[in-house]
């Protein structure tokens, strides 16, 4: 059972935070938004993610977290890699579409994402701020998620760079100019 206590300083402390409390707390940490893509054509799979982290410069490694019960896990495992497409502020609709449980796959997903295959064979979003094409280096269980550590094999950066899409406290927000 999760118990919370509000101290004299106004800080709430949980002995064992439940999922709802933990989600609320982590929502205070603003994140960028990306669409993870695997494959192309009829085999296209894609998912919106906010758990993307650069891990290492030498070698160039990135970490993504994927729902273990979702269909993207099987796609990444089968393909041996993925692409990370960091979205810009004007791509909220794309983020929302691929965050939905009924998100498209196959040719419909490919069309919505822009139909551009990277050198790795995974779709890259042509107007994303950054696209990273990765091969899976390691796969780790992470509770109800699977963590993939990807070796960055290719990178595309938008020109000009636009403001990033940011998520904070359960909603999209803008960085101050």
- The radius of gyration is 17 Å
**Whole-Å distance between the termini?**
43 Å
Question: How many H/I helical runs?
Answer: 4
Report the sheet-strand fraction.
35-45%
| Largest sheet strand order | 5-4-8-11-12-7-6
Sheet having the most strands: 7 strands, antiparallel
| Overall pLDDT confidence | 91
Name the shape in a single word.
globular
Helix-strand category: alpha+beta
Percent helix: 10-25%
Helix/strand order: EEHEEEEEHEHHEEEEEE
Unreliable segments of 5+ consecutive residues: none
Number of strands: 14
Q: Which quaternary structure do these chains form? A: single chain
Describe this entry's structure for a reader.
This protein is of the alpha+beta class. It is globular, with a radius of gyration of 17 Å. The chain contains four helices and 14 strands. The N and C termini lie far apart (43 Å). Strand 11 and strand 12 form a beta hairpin. It has a seven-stranded antiparallel β-sheet with strand order 5-4-8-11-12-7-6, sandwiched between helices. Strands 3-13-14 form a three-stranded antiparallel β-sheet, with no helix packed on it. Strands 1-2 form a two-stranded antiparallel sheet.
Secondary structure layout:
Layout: E1 4-6, E2 12-14, H1 19-26, E3 31-32, E4 34-38, E5 45-49, E6 52-56, E7 61-67, H2 71-79, E8 81-86, H3 92-99, H4 106-113, E9 116-117, E10 123-124, E11 130-142, E12 145-157, E13 166-168, E14 171-173
Antiparallel strand pairs: 1-2, 3-13, 4-5, 4-8, 6-7, 7-12, 8-11, 9-10, 11-12, 13-14
